[in-house]
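Help! Submission page says 'invalid entity' but I think these are all valid:
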Amino acid sequence: MIGAESLVRTLVAGGADTAFVNPGTSEMHMVQAIDNIAGVRSVLSLFEGVCAGAADGFGRMTGRPAMTLFHLGAGLGNAAANLHNARRGRTPLINIVGEHATYHIKYDAPLTSDIAGIAGPVSNWVHTPSTPGGMAQAGIDVLQAAQSGGGQIATLIVPADCAWGESDGPAESLEIPVLPEVSDDEVKSAAIAIKAGNRVVLLLGAKALGERGIRAAQRIADATGAEVWRETFATKVERGPGLPKVLRLPYFPEQAEEALKGADTMILAGAREPVSFFAYEGKNSELAPANCTVTRLSGPRRDAAAALEALADVLGTPSGQESECPLERPELPTTGDLTDETVGLALGALLPDGAIICDEAITSGVPAAAYTQTAARHTWLSITGGAIGAGIPLSVGAAIACPDRKVIGLIGDGSAMYTIQALWTQAREKLDIVTVIFSNRQYHILQIELMRSGAQNPGPKAMEMMNLNNPEINWVQMAAGLGVDGGRATTAVEFSTLLKRGFDEPGPFLIEAVL
Amino acid sequence: MIGAESLVRTLVAGGADTAFVNPGTSEMHMVQAIDNIAGVRSVLSLFEGVCAGAADGFGRMTGRPAMTLFHLGAGLGNAAANLHNARRGRTPLINIVGEHATYHIKYDAPLTSDIAGIAGPVSNWVHTPSTPGGMAQAGIDVLQAAQSGGGQIATLIVPADCAWGESDGPAESLEIPVLPEVSDDEVKSAAIAIKAGNRVVLLLGAKALGERGIRAAQRIADATGAEVWRETFATKVERGPGLPKVLRLPYFPEQAEEALKGADTMILAGAREPVSFFAYEGKNSELAPANCTVTRLSGPRRDAAAALEALADVLGTPSGQESECPLERPELPTTGDLTDETVGLALGALLPDGAIICDEAITSGVPAAAYTQTAARHTWLSITGGAIGAGIPLSVGAAIACPDRKVIGLIGDGSAMYTIQALWTQAREKLDIVTVIFSNRQYHILQIELMRSGAQNPGPKAMEMMNLNNPEINWVQMAAGLGVDGGRATTAVEFSTLLKRGFDEPGPFLIEAVL
């Protein structure tokens, strides 16, 4: 058995059975191995950033690592932005990156590059086996690394001669590492802090935003008057009627500071201490009030949901009695202009139960988040690392992970262009995804940020760096070119009609919402 | 004057007057500076890989560095593949990458990453100023670095507070570094080697492939019987009637070895010793015959054209008497199927004088190269580093550098999807580019490579990783969605008609050649 096959068999036995691939010449033996092994599914994308974002979406929804397959340093580089997002979101993810045969590297052929150097900044773990016999153990190690620390990016660089050489076969998989629990003392400290506090904020992040963590936090809130907030860009948060409501920390630092004003006690559960996304001249980076006492119940690398449950058992209401959102849906808008607001209303009115929403709408998505909150049970995935181009690929991975759930991509028109190739994979795999493009024909967030930076009367050159209106992109044509059916809405009723159609029909569908 | 303005003024004074940009929040003061300074042109692209490839095309055509403007590590990562190509092609190129304010980095906000780490593998030089006052000197240093060594990737990481803080104004530019010349002794050694050789191969690369180098090499060939070859993927080669013909070393190692069989003497002028692009099981990495004596007249970091001229003065024919290609064009095909062959014939028949051809056609481009060789004077740009996604962006940069020349992109359908966003910039800037998509609906090179790797009867999963036929991409719809007019050809006459139209009309035009 060649090394490539020993690796893939080891990975599949360890639960990594889905591969998002864009291989090249140096990966041909990996392709053969995937071809030969029935237990692995391979999904082709035409750009590596799509593979990485899809693997992120898959890992978020299943909790299991998908694998990627990339061609040397250039292929890995194309995936770097979405690997950054996955790393920030603590998604378990296995990168398989081909490398020249070990003896060929010294010749510095044109595609030679420092693959480990490219991998480092977007990986938590990087390893290169040096013999075909080392491939199986490398498979065990990469599985362990990806599933340690609450989810990590583990990158395995595979020299071609390690892939094509003879090995001793696959290795047996180990148990998956579990998140360490917090100690009783830490729970007690948090309880003391909450009791002593006046305005108490529970800030949830990472795995605390699953149903268990949210319910436990609400039990604490109901008993103590504490407020339940979450980090701005959550990896995965459960929302909807029958679940407690979690408030989202606003993006802009002034708004976040306003939201936290007067809080004298903050308890971190899975979240890190809140900081401004960017620095602004003369503004603080830290968002908690200066006199606020911050207590870390659990960081993201420990079991924050279990920690919240332990804390709720100490000072919360009984389990099962926590407050929940009622079922409330807005009316479906059938008249008027199409705006962020009417898009949000329509989404709230029609949201299917059990949907997965992948949010990269940037400035346009705020009403959508508000109006879907209590409309139906759903899972919300954000852009965790701020690297634009996550949204459409995330929807691909989520749909492959959860074929029985409707997936919705809320995508800004600026965002959509970074990884538009993902639509082709949606069509190829016949994925049940409705993609809404918020077409405002600008990088609207940058226009806001330019004003915030103190620019007085910006000139045409500055505005041209933020306007997408010359030429206007025809998103329905683009989607059709990539095999995805769609329609264009310029009024509220047109949008509502198209959204209903997208939700009713299986398979991918794109709506260009002209704002 | 803020630091950003002192930097941009310094860069513009040093000749870097064209910026390919995709900025974000941390670059808003750089945007303001570009806005305020009349001497700099900014070109927006909707994906950073397009900016990098366009800057590569601009640098190849002008010999001057363009600057990019990227948003933090994620933006730079998106550009990595085309920066790899530019680095391999020795294009002078200045990256400006925004970074958080110096005091903000320690908070590890979501978009924080190791930017210098990401820059390292795709840069020859990386620097981060630490104060606004250091920005002007950083501008001088990055100009010098980009133009040293025959062309380098020089990356300047700009913390936001260095951009927005007060500086002392711009710095005065220094003279551009010139390539060191080779010594008389090196020229003599090469002359002795040529005289002693039986079958002598001159292998040209880098700047030896300009008109000066080619003419000098032909003088040597005419006098000594030496053959003039070039490296497989040249940064820029001048071709056409009135110029000597340079043979291209084939891509596949067996063919390259066959081409060099019996050569006992090789003289390198701007080229490196030829090696196989990839390693193959049981095959050599080095392509020159084992008993071939290789003499380096000039590496790519010295003035290889001047070295060839010096060598020609020693043993060549008189200057101006070198053999030249005649003007020969094929007939315009007006019947029959559309094939790589008929596309090539039509290109040869219609090629406008002075065109620039950006070649990323991979398996489909061989006849095009053959039939355009003697059709009209033109410049040929290859994908120098093997990182796919170079072609369409290169055409953008070449067209901005040379607005009076017709630019032609020959792009495989697999290649085209990596940086398809470049079409939008073609439309926005009304660039005079004809893009030909060779639509064979497969990664054909990989199907060949899979067979070469020894795969017996590959199964459907392997073939699905290389087939682009499900769904078929409609390139004309894609182009229209991005504002580029185009047409679809399924026969030779349809292609000829569309190509004529594309050449006759100014502005961008795309032809989907259905093969």
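Support: the input was valid. A stray whitespace character was the problem, and the output above is from the cleaned input. The two ends of chain B are 57 Å apart (CA to CA).
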